[in-house]
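Much of our argument rests on the idea that a fold can be written as discrete symbols. Part of our work consisted of pairing the sequence of a single chain with a tokenised description of its backbone. No coordinates are needed to read the tokens, only the vocabulary itself. The record that follows shows the chain in one-letter code together with its fold in token form.
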Amino acid sequence: MPVVDLNVDRNLLCANFDGYKLSFDAIAVLRQNLHLQREPLKLEPHARHQYSLLHTELFARHNALFSDPWARHNSYYMNCEHQLVMCSYDEQRGQAREQRVVYEMRQQLADHGDGFAHVAGDYNYTLRFISEKYCVLCDGMLSYTLLDTGDRAGRADNWQLITRTPIINTLTDPDGQRGFQLYDARLDIVQERKQISLACGHVARRQRNGSIDVHVLEVTWSRWTLAVNGGQWSYDICQQLQTTGSIYYCAFEPRAESLILCSNRELQAAASNVPNGPAYTWTQSDGNLTLCFPLQQHVARHDVHIHCTGNQLRVEFQAQTLLDATLYRNLDHELTTWTLATVEAAQQLQLTLFKQQAEHWPRLLQLDNADEEPDADADPDADADAEPERLPIPNLEDPVEECDFPLGATNADVKMVRFNLPTKSITHTIFLGLTPPIFVSNLRAGFPAAFVTRQDIDGAVWLQQFQPSRPDEWSVRHEGQLPAFGYVQASKQERKFIDCCPHLDYAVICESYRHVFIYKPRNDSANGLRNRYGPQVVIGKQHLVTLDDDVGEVLGLTTAPNVITILAEHAVFYLQV
């Protein structure tokens, strides 16, 4: 397996940089208050079930403010009303534009048994822009949504739904897992067809050696493909990967034939292959259920067979079983109806089932005998707020589980690997030692995200380098240098978000509450100060911005030329740098 070296471009180094000097120059701060009912949506891990280090990192590192690489001065967040809100900064006038809602997500939320709302344990929304007019939204529960945004540089208020699909086939997911975070999405033109590649993560609990429970981070690699006639988007799961460690970087290479991941544990393919059978979606009212199965074109009625007795349901299409399961409650099978319909140029089977008793079902399928059936009369809010039971720890020197190792008790190196889909193997590896990347940032629209590593005391910025003519070769290019930033970053123990300007004019470190540190390495020549036998000394500027104490926790941060946008619980700030 080829090992890729991080070769530093010495032309990008600043040998005469002499550190940062605290500057008392004023930084203009613009504030926009948020309405009480439209504050940013922030979900916390479930106190009883999501206690691992992987869960803590996934929720703590979540950036609730999403940057648009094609319009850097536009940022977006999801509020408590499930509305996608745009925050925009007018660079010419130096003022913040009025916030506006561009999409209503609530109208697209199907009833998954949770009453059109997130339940305890669901993940937060994640949004990725893939072109000037497309973006992908993950609802944190079960689904991807592809949106047509129109001209985002202008005033595109009404985004349009293109397609929506479950992330995991509900037929092949007997555990009923939910909760996904979108890591990366990429649009490519492959053989004159649009292809959208998607990578999302989910923390799952698995058994090892038959008895030991461990938490693993599962990465699902899937694709949307537009038909040649431009009518229908088809969805397929390409590969599932898993690791017991943290994921610090996840991005597709150009053309999306390989996925680049960085972790402190070994990455491997999931134990079970993911079938490519069609998924289904379901909705309910108090009296009936509606199941929708996507089918191939030109399907005849004699190709479909429905068998429904009591709480048993089997749906067959030609020689394939689409669903064979035990439902949550009994049905009135004599009233079962089905039809073949065309929705958005795609043919689907619509199955209508009538409940024997009018009631709300918390789930579609019945749990296995091994699973604990929750009490129907129990208060779900009380269970979510209950204090988790204390786990016995027989030996304090041993970790509770493999991913919760004490600091300094592991010799696992951090590695960045390139997983190639055609060969289904790892083709290239970068060894990063014991230190993970400092942060990840999108520098250029349409390019993979850059990652920053510590190079001596500096921060070295790296970009993927891919040559379509030689797909077997892969490397990274030294894109830029942040002088002394590795040393500065290590000294900030309360840091939450780290990012830099796309042009590397500044870097920013934001704490959870109030404090924002801004570093400008290319600013001051130290008023002609020189070393005795050396060149002129270069000194950077450090700015400290203290936010108001009534805005709550900082939930997100984005950067653009000359402005930093910060999302807090009760306000949005624009820092003019």
Summary: Confidence is low (pLDDT under 50) at residues 272-278, 369-378, 393-410. The longest strand covers residues 193-208.
